[in-house]
Amino acid sequence: MSDISEYKDVWVFTEIKDHVEVHECALEILSKAREIADQIGQKLVAIVLALEAEQYLPIIEEYGVDKIIFLSHNDLKHYHERIFTSLIYNLIDQYNPSIFLFPSTEVGNALAARLAYRCRTGLVSDVLNLELSDDYGNNLLISDKPAYLGNVLVKIICPSTRPQMCTITMGTFMGEKKKLKKGDVEIEKVDYIYDINKLKIKILGAPTRKDKPSSTLSDAKFVIGGGHGLNSKANFDKLYDLAKYTNGQVGGTRRPIMNGWMPEHLQIGISGETIFSDLYLSLGISGAIQHVVGITDSKTIVAINKDPNAPIFKAADYCIIGDAKEILEGLLDHYRVPE
Q: With left for phi above 0 and alpha for psi between -120 and 50, is residue 137 left, alpha or beta?
């Protein structure tokens, strides 16, 4: 590793979602990264790997970047951990970025972890805030992250290695997102050089997920969240009936996934989706901070829990103290069409 003083600039992995558009979370991060780059007097650089990557550059230019480094090739249409890791590691080795930020997505989390290992540096996942400090070193990034089951927020630094790396959940910096077109954006196209014959696993077609809903949680207007308080898979499955009657979308906490009641991609919170619904209905959820940070951007939150001291009530607009299972049955009776 080079001397820390040789590392400079703030990089953002600007993920392309579904081979169609720049990921919204990446745009949010770019806006926050612009603020950080200004504070340390360094450049903001967007890193883009995609098929026909040139088509996304005009959008990225609108978010205050000083430079875009991109690779465009057929092999980059779908994320491949070995290809992406190798190509971006070569860029890191060449340019020595001081800070490297990633969206907390399936791709972003997997890629950041591999790159952190290759660089022998630290990685903070699912951070809630970023700030700079000189208390422990020059231009040191401080990352806020929940710990101990979400009961405390810890501040994490990476004083001895570079780049300083973080993954950031969608919605964390939604308030920071703003277009800021700079005068002349430097564009650098890097040649794609990778021996595809080295791969032990090759992608033969577009990956699919059969149980993935047609409408993602982050796009849903009405979200119904279930937790461990529903007590059984049979009760949890009733949420899907309620969603069918109300045109809603089902999500939940980590516990239903661990219990085998719900697929992982429906998790709401730091390690899952952030929702922006008009209405969020929580049933049997206690309200750990890992979950709460994923729902606070909903316009209205209604929480149902039999524990009057449940933390979820602090985040809710309307609090109903009662048995979530009984209230769920009542809602189903109300909406169910008589046969």
A: left
